[in-house]
Design brief:
CATH topology: Purple Acid Phosphatase, chain A, domain 2
Largest sheet: 7 strands, mixed
Number of domains: 1
Strand order of the largest sheet: 1-5-6-7-8-10-9
CATH class: Alpha Beta
Helix content: 25-40%
Radius of gyration: 18 Å
Structural class: alpha/beta
Order of helices and strands: HHHEEHEHEHEEHEHEEEEE
Length: about 280
């Protein structure tokens, strides 16, 4: 209840300051997800599928979400990227959406990734990233928000599937694409990790309906993930960590990594025969 009241007051203040669009908070009016997915898949067709090769069967990656840039460059995010770069066992990192809080400085994330890190970062869009017509800048900087990539080890192959849920839905086009990826790319892979901004299981009503999955779509997705032996689904959006296991799949909602927040953290995943993980505080 306290979180819900805080959210309402903060949202009212941000709307008055012009940092949030009330239309986007209440109604999913921004670019249709099917349009975004078509543009993402068009880029994928030109760029091809990324395969990272690592020297050992055990490797590591980092993950964060909800950077929520306002008026200054993201220090917590930059620190995480620096630590990932210095970690010889880590191969890459994931950024699970909501780079922005207002309407400006999405390029700061791209600049940080280019200037600080040398391992690849894989990014997807969150609901705040498409506010104020932000999708066009997203395309210029990151090119796609619906894609998959592989990590090839000496004896195994892992698949990572990144999904666009910025409107609170995957849409029929993306769902059909996802089913196709599961049917043709999942077989033969050791682990399958899914990244999506919108969290599957909500613990309260602090997020508004326009950016959350419906119950019907949640059921459809969780059934699809279980059927295809997904190990872990990673998400953000809610800003507070939660770990749930449902029908054989682990669902992890990450804390936000936004500067100045008391619970800012990121995660480290160790991939081997099992998927092990830890939360790391930014303090």
């Amino acid at each position: 209840m306290v979180r819900k009241v805080w959210f309402i007051l903060a949202a009212a203040l941000c709307i008055s300051c012009g940092k949030l669009e009330i239309k986007n908070m209440l109604f999913p009016y921004a670019e249709d997800v099917n349009t975004r997915v078509a543009e993402s898949l068009g880029w994928n067709d030109k760029a091809g599928v990324t395969t990272l090769t690592v020297p050992e069967d055990d490797y590591r990656f980092y993950a964060c979400t909800d950077i929520h840039i306002e008026d200054s460059r993201p220090e917590n995010f930059a620190a995480m990227v620096q630590k990932e770069k210095a970690d010889e066992k880590s191969a890459f990192y994931l950024v699970l959406g909501d780079l922005l809080f207002g309407k400006e400085h999405m390029e700061w994330v791209d600049e940080t990734m280019s200037a600080v890190g040398n391992d690849p970062g894989f990014v997807i869009a969150g609901n705040h990233d498409i506010f104020y017509g932000g999708w066009s800048q997203w395309l210029d900087l990151f090119h796609s928000s619906t894609y998959y990539f592989f990590v090839q080890t000496p004896s195994a192959n892992d698949i990572y599937i990144m999904l666009d849920s910025a409107n609170g839905t995957l849409g029929e086009k993306q769902l059909a694409w996802l089913e196709g990826v599961f049917a043709t790319r999942r077989p033969g892979c050791r682990h399958c990790i899914v990244g999506v901004h919108t969290n599957m299981f909500r613990t309260d009503a602090s997020q508004l309906p326009s950016t959350n999955f419906t119950l019907e779509e949640t059921y459809r997705l969780t059934a699809l993930f279980s059927k295809n032996n997904v190990d872990t689904v990673l998400s953000g959006h809610d800003h507070f960590r939660d770990v749930s296991v449902y029908n054989g799949v682990t669902y992890i909602t990450l804390d936000q990594i936004k500067d100045g927040t008391s619970n800012a953290s990121y995660m480290i995943f160790d991939m081997g025969q099992c998927v092990d993980y830890q939360f790391v505080s930014c303090k």
